[in-house]
Amino acid sequence: MNDGESFGDGSNIIYVNGERSDDNSEAGRLIADFWQKDYTKMNNKLLSDRVKHFKKEEGRKEMYSVLDEMKQEGKI
Question: Which are the contacts of 31, defined by CB distance < 8 A and separation ≥ 6?
Answer without folding.
Answer: 16, 18, 20, 21
